[in-house]
Amino acid sequence: MSTRRVLAMQDVVKRTPIEFNNNNQQVSQYYGSNVFGLDAMREFLSEEAFNSIQNSMHQGTIVERKMADQVAACMKAWAQSKGVTHYTHWFQPLSGATAEKHDGFFEPIEGGRAIERFSGNALVQQEPDASSFPNGGIRNTFEARGYTAWDPTSPAFIWGETLCIPTIFISYTGESLDFKTPLLKSLHAVDKAATEVCQYFDKNVTKVIATLGWEQEYFLVDSALYNIRYDLQQTGRTLFGHAPAKGQQLEDHYWGSIPERVSAFMRDFEYESHLLGIPVRTRHNEVAPAQFECAPVFEETNLAVDHNLLLMDVMEKVAIRHNFRVLMHEKPYAGVNGSGKHNNWSLATNTGKNLLSPGKTPKTNLQFLTFFVNTVKAVYEHGDLLRASIASANNDHRLGANEAPPAIMSVFLGEQLSNVLDELEKAVHNGKMSPEEKTALKMNIGRIPDILLDNTDRNRTSPFAFTGNKFEFRAVGSSANCGGPMTVLNAIMAEQLVSFKKDVDALIHKKVEKDEAIFQVLKKYITESKKIRFEGNGYGDAWKAEAKKRGLNNIPTTPGALEAMISKKTLNMFESQGILNHREQEARYEISIETYTKKIQIESRIIADMVNNQIIPSALNYQKGLVESVRGMKDIMTAAEFKTVAKTQLELIKEISERVTVIKNEAHLMTEERKKANNLDTAKKQAHAYCEKVKPYFDSIRYNVDKLEGIVDDATWPLPKYREMLYLR
Ligand code: ADP
Ligand code: MG
């Protein structure tokens, strides 16, 4: 019955680390060599073309067609010098994964010969068939065309034999169909709003960029075991599996020594990442067995998002060379810590200043305080939208599960800064602050950096925490495109900063002195946004009760959480910032809710298949042996002997029958619920039905399957067990 599992385990036992060799080169010798970055551009482009691209990257100007022809020809020459034969527009459709369609450079010409060609047109724009990608009803079937357009702010790169050109993806009528387009618009909006606010403090600021440093958590599993678990292959998580006797109780995995095989894999994917200019620098074990994390040096957000997506792809491909599979799912194993993708976010100016880093001088402190308080206010205003931005069927398993941030949005500031805000609130009384009070306040902030950066004042249970010089959005799921949550964060910050400037200017207009006006507005925001601040244990039940009292939402599942995507407040915010119009945002909601339904639907089908084709047959097979043995006993024993000796076996036989009956029944009822859900007339109703009517069966079926796993003979059980998958050598 389980020959496949036995064979797979034999493979696993025989594994040795796959040697990885980069000839002892230092990273600096090859870093970025597969990127059409500054060095390659300087070498291959004319000065005119080089300047045109640089202007486009930094000022957002359009690269003219004539220039594009030149750039394309040079890109092709550079790529060919590295053996590249194909090119692709690389984009981020709303399905979540990245998309690519590889075209050869060659073109047949007369005489049966061929030449290699890559024109400016091919670089700048392509027309993939948009009908195969999610579009939320935007694309009518008679207008299937969408197009991808070159994003010169993220450099082209070589992956395998292909030159990849990062692009946006929009419908023929101009609506965005991807993650990148609104992200770029949100970056533009926050740049504009933040630069204007910076003028209060420093006239030299002409540009503000949002920075992102993600931390990627993931699991590794041996590919032999992965290959015989349909659930892992099809859904990314194990739908069944009894918790191992030794899980993470001993807390001996976190930052422990990395197994040889794993470390060879890490060296290999880091090498590939460095060739692609992805600045991964940190690696360590995570909390759960077989769980790891990697993190890069932070970058400008658009580039950081591209790099994260590319890294996930690189990891998956490199893992296969090492006979591993990477699990990016938020919760591959029930009862074991899940995976997230912490998004460290800040704003930086062209003058080299991190706007969320408390400074040493009173002037920069007020600037810090301004951006700091405005971030808190933005999260207060749009906490539900931030919650929606990280909602997915996968992440539902993780949020609020006492290992990940709760589904309640709150902001953690740390004791020092909480005190500063409280003092400021008290100090600005009757709309006035004495000069001494102002100085004292500013001086206090000056003492903060040293206190914060020594890492003592940290709270790991908050979904959105200030960590000394950046905010860390911890609720993002490990498999998510961070472009989604980053678009929201930048957008709400942009809207917030615009309001702030309006409020301050109104006071200045009334002849209030500038600093005073800023203090007054900040005080008002501090008072208004107080309820989003929480310093305590986000995992505790006390917080749930407290949050409820404060009127903060706690929406545990995706269909409910997604509603915030189409609230009036959200639609207006996105539209006022020029990021997404109502139609685009509504389409995004439709796609998210349909994706949720599809995911649960697939899981439900796989549960039924595995139960009927693998689990029940194995259990019955084992039971058959028991029945035969009992029958044999009866033949050779006296009735009295039999009665005492066969008891245990008879109980086992009975338990198997009972559990099989329950499983079979529940699987049937689940299928019936699915049919009902499929017949509902809106995507929203379907999603709710899948969440509330279909999904509850997952747990009851699983409970009984896992019990069977506990009693059925180890050799008969068809699925690799947690203890086999989670312990890597
Ligand atoms: P941890 O949260 O695990 O203690 P670190 O404090 O070392 O980790 O930083 C985590 C991530 O934060 C890194 O990826 C780093 O690049 C990023 N980071 C640091 N400074 C900034 C910043 N100003 N903007 C965005 N990300 C940043
Ligand atoms: Mg972190």
Key traits:
Creatine Kinase, Chain A, domain 2; nine-stranded mixed β-sheet; Four Helix Bundle (Hemerythrin (Met), subunit A); binds adenosine-5'-diphosphate; about 725 residues; globular; six-stranded mixed β-sheet; binds magnesium ion; 3 domains; Ubiquitin-like (UB roll); about 50% helix; alpha+beta
Query: What is the rounded distance between the termini?
Result: 27 Å
CATH topology of the largest domain: Creatine Kinase, Chain A, domain 2
How many domains, as an integer?
A: 3
Q: Classify the beta-strand content into a percent band.
A: 5-15%
Q: What oligomeric state best describes the polypeptide chains here? A: single chain
Described by the principal axes of the CA atoms, the overall outline is globular
The second-level CATH architecture of the largest domain is 2-Layer Sandwich
Each distinct ligand: adenosine-5'-diphosphate, magnesium ion
State the helicity in percent bands. 40-55%
Write down how many β-strands occur, each being a DSSP E stretch of 2 or more residues.
17
Please explain how this structure is put together.
- The chain has 729 residues and is of the alpha+beta class.
- It has 3 domains: 148 residues, Ubiquitin-like (UB roll) (Roll), CATH 3.10.20; 394 residues, Glutamine synthetase/guanido kinase, catalytic domain (Creatine Kinase, Chain A, domain 2); 131 residues, Four Helix Bundle (Hemerythrin (Met), subunit A), CATH 1.20.120.
- 52% of the residues lie in helices and 12% in strands.
- It has 27 helices and 17 strands.
- The strands form 3 sheets. Strands 9, 10, 11, 12, 13, 14, 15, 16 and 17 form a 9-stranded mixed sheet that branches. Strands 1, 2, 5, 6, 7 and 8 form a 6-stranded mixed sheet that branches. A two-stranded antiparallel sheet has the order 3-4.
- Helix 12 crosses helix 15, helix 14 runs antiparallel to helix 15 and helix 14 packs across helix 18.
- The radius of gyration is 29 Å and the shape is globular.
- It starts with a helix and ends with a helix.
- It binds adenosine-5'-diphosphate (ADP) and magnesium ion.
- The site of adenosine-5'-diphosphate has 14 residues, from strand 9, strand 11 and strand 14.
